[in-house]
Amino acid sequence: MKITSARFVTSAVGLDDCPQSDLPEFAFIGRSNVGKSSLLNLLCNQKLLAKVSSKPGHTRLINFFVVNENRCFVDLPGYGYAKAAKSERQRFNDFVADYIEFREGLKHVFVLIDSRHEPMTIDVDHVTWLVERKVAFSLVFTKSDKVKPGRMKTNQKLFLEALSEYTDGEPQIFTTSAKSEDGRLDLLQFIDGLARN
Ligand code: GTP
Ligand code: MG
Fold this sequence. Notes:
Strand content: 15-25%
Helix content: 25-40%
CATH topology: Rossmann fold
CATH superfamily: P-loop containing nucleotide triphosphate hydrolases
Mean pLDDT: 91
Number of helices: 6
Order of helices and strands: EEHEEHHEHEHEH
Distance between the termini: 15 Å
Largest sheet: 7 strands, mixed
Bound molecules: guanosine-5'-triphosphate, magnesium ion
CATH architecture: 3-Layer(aba) Sandwich
Shape: globular
């Protein structure tokens, strides 16, 4: 899949506020600071499309981007943001949960996991929430440039093990780096396949 155009459309604060759209939609979720906005920029080949920040909790709204005029990428606010109320930290914001559960046109959710860490309960819990609601998802292990391949493999294996009691079969896994561009083409190809179905 070659990216010929990518443009910001709008931000939303809730499901009712999301734009009307007939396009297949792909959403990116994960812990605050895991690299959602960076991955979106990598996929679209534009450094400044989604706002990236070293300070966690940067993306606070649901941001919509139309890509190649035939699909939509959605940058979601992260979970686990330390300054959010504790009850909010442990789960998706209500409006993000509503978006994931009820948005028509949402084809697939990419859950981003920081490759550097062993499985974190907060990530496993959020993935389990998706499984319970039968949301189609894949795992994307980010920041691969920051971790040795052996450690990456181990962390991925441990994560799948932590999930195994909740899932039948293993979810699809991707490995990416916004820095080295690792994984970009694999992910785009996968999205292309889903968008055509
Ligand atoms: P929130 O919007 O706050 O939830 O964060 P986010 O998940 O959108 O993360 P963002 O893309 O803003 O990136 C957070 C920090 O991690 C920034 O300083 C990025 O430059 C850095 N970062 C993101 N992806 C990578 C990567 O693949 N490699 C490296 N080395 N740094 C990365
Ligand atoms: Mg962000």
